[in-house]
Specification:
By secondary structure, this protein is α+β, with helices and mostly antiparallel strands. It is 18% helix and 41% strand. It has three domains: 85 residues, Thrombin, subunit H (Beta Barrel), CATH 2.40.10; 109 residues, Thrombin, subunit H, CATH 2.40.10.10; 96 residues, Roll (Pdz3 Domain), CATH 2.30.42.10. The longest helix has 24 residues. The N and C termini lie far apart (118 Å).
Length: 383
């Protein structure tokens, strides 16, 4: 009987202790350190858990990162335009000529109607049609182009209240890993936004066999056909570049896109609006021969700066054999350019980039090899 009484007391104590654990457990944090769940009764008498939202969410239910992306889109999507062009014509089997069309993106620069885009978007266009955020389409006229940097400006004649310019940022402050947002019209899907990061900086993007764009931004945000000419933005909604090309075997996004930096755009835009072109300095050298040692001068403008300061081209000789006169050209006699202002410029692109970083009227110092000896020659650049 004594043993039965002890067992009864132990069972009662265990029941009380178990009830205490259950009631106390609801106020303890979970094993993962998450806030406790709230329990509400359901119609069938079972308890239903309602998770407590983490404090990382804002009042409207967005995370800070989502809120930043939404802010950038709301701030800039009305600035982005869809650009459709009619490019020449193609002849069908029945010799009927039909115009071919292409499309790209652009964005508003100011309330005067200037739109920035890539040169290749409007190249050879006979007609340019720009669609704004409101769905209305307007004819546009070219204002200025810079094929070397793949930049073009066109203009609309529309009411100012329809134009929402972008805010220019400083691309010199960019760092690898920063978040970027691209808005454009891939495959004609208007004002589509994609996100990514800056994968690398200071890339070189070839434009022609001899020229390339410097300081290009490499991104992994999805860029597809139709995105060309659209804005690349930072997390504050500022313009840091213009999307211009992708590296892909299929012609579609492979996670490697390129954008022209905003600081280059800022230098070119005023000249295109004012002059219709970029006024670049002229050194008076019209042709060079690129060798491993440097750039051998082949031809110069007879009235250009290079001739005026005494730079030497190939030695021209004439040999008469009977009634026939043969002309000989000795390239080894020409000056060999190896640098400009102390910078090594043994490639055509390096030489042109260094010269064109100056203004007409500036003086540059060429490092050349003449008759096997290094010398320096000052040249005043003309327009």
């Amino acid at each position: 009987m004594k043993h039965i009484a002890i067992c009864f007391v132990s069972a009662a104590a265990g029941t009380v202790f178990g009830a205490w654990l259950i009631s106390a457990g609801s106020s303890l944090p979970s094993a993962a350190g998450q806030p406790p769940s709230q329990q509400t009764g359901s119609g069938n008498g079972l308890a239903r858990q309602t998770p407590v939202e983490p404090r990382a969410y804002l009042a409207d239910g967005l995370t800070p990162d989502e809120a930043a992306s939404a802010y950038v889109y709301e701030l800039n999507n009305r600035s982005v335009t869809n650009i459709a062009t009619r490019i020449g014509s193609e002849r069908t089997f029945f010799r009927i000529e039909n115009p071919t069309e292409d499309a790209g993106s652009g964005f508003v620069l100011d309330t005067d109607g200037h739109i920035l885009t890539n040169y290749h978007v409007i190249e050879n266009a006979q007609r340019i049609l720009v669609t704004l955020y409101n769905g209305e389409s307007y004819e546009a006229e070219p204002v200025g182009v810079d094929p070397i940097n793949d930049i073009a400006i066109i203009r609309l004649d529309v009411p100012r209240e329809l134009l929402f310019p972008v805010t220019l940022g400083d691309s010199s402050l960019l760092k690898v890993g920063m978040k970027v947002l691209a808005i454009g019209n891939p495959f004609g899907l208007e004002r589509t936004m994609t996100t990514g990061i800056i994968s690398s900086l200071n890339r070189t993007l070839p434009v022609t066999r001899a020229r390339s764009i410097k300081s290009v931004i490499q991104i992994d945000a999805a860029i597809n056909p139709g995105n060309s000419g659209g804005p690349l933005l930072d997390s504050h909604g500022r313009l840091i570049g213009m999307n211009t090309a992708i590296a892909s075997h299929t012609g579609q996004s492979a996670g490697i896109g390129f954008a022209i930096p905003s600081n280059l755009l800022a230098r070119v835009i005023p000249e295109l609006i004012e002059h219709g072109r970029v006024i670049r300095p002229d050194i008076g050298i019209t042709e060079v021969w690129q060798t491993e040692e440097g750039l051998r001068i082949l031809r110069m403008d007879p009235e250009g700066p290079a001739v005026q300061v005494g730079l030497k081209g190939p030695a021209i000789g004439r040999i008469k054999r009977g009634f026939v006169v043969f002309e000989t050209v000795d390239r080894s006699a020409a000056d060999l350019i190896v640098g400009v202002n102390g910078k090594d410029t043994r490639k055509v692109d390096e030489f042109l980039s260094e010269v064109e970083s100056h203004r007409p009227g500036d003086t540059v110092v060429l490092q050349i090899i003449r008759d096997g000896k290094p010398i320096q020659v000052e040249v005043r650049l003309s327009e």
